[in-house]
Structures are given as C-alpha cells and as structure tokens.
Amino acid sequence: MLTPDQQDAFFHLGVCSGGCSEAAAVAIAAAEPALLAQLVRANLVKVADGRITLWKHYAPLPTNS
Known about the structure:
The structure is a single chain. By secondary structure, the chain is α+β, with helices and mostly antiparallel strands. It has one domain (4-54). It contains 3 helices and 2 strands. It has helices at residues 4-12, 22-31, 33-41; strands at 45-48, 51-54. It has a two-stranded antiparallel ribbon. A hairpin with a 2-residue loop joins strand 1 and strand 2. It is globular and about 30 Å long.
C-alpha cells in the first residue's frame, strides 16, 4: 500500500482519487507517458530495466515558497 505522502502526491497529480495500491499507481503511470514523466520528476517512481517501480522511501520534494 502507498504511504500517506505517496497517496497525497498521486492524488494531486490526478493518478488516484482515493485509496490506491502500488500496482494501480504503476499501471496508471505506465499507460500515460506524460504522467509517467511527471511522476519521475516528482521522485515518485523510477524506471529501470524497462520496469516502473515506486520509490520506497518517498519524501516530498522541498518547495520554494
């Protein structure tokens, strides 16, 4: 299951509207190349050896506010 921070980040990017499993998040990311690029930039997922996986120790990127 996703951590609360991951849930929030995926929700804000429009991936999941509520509770979301890792498998669902990865499947949605794989189907949308533009979204996948956003997720990689946000440090939510990594792509290696043709596989998309979630970063296990996700921490929100600092914002300049």
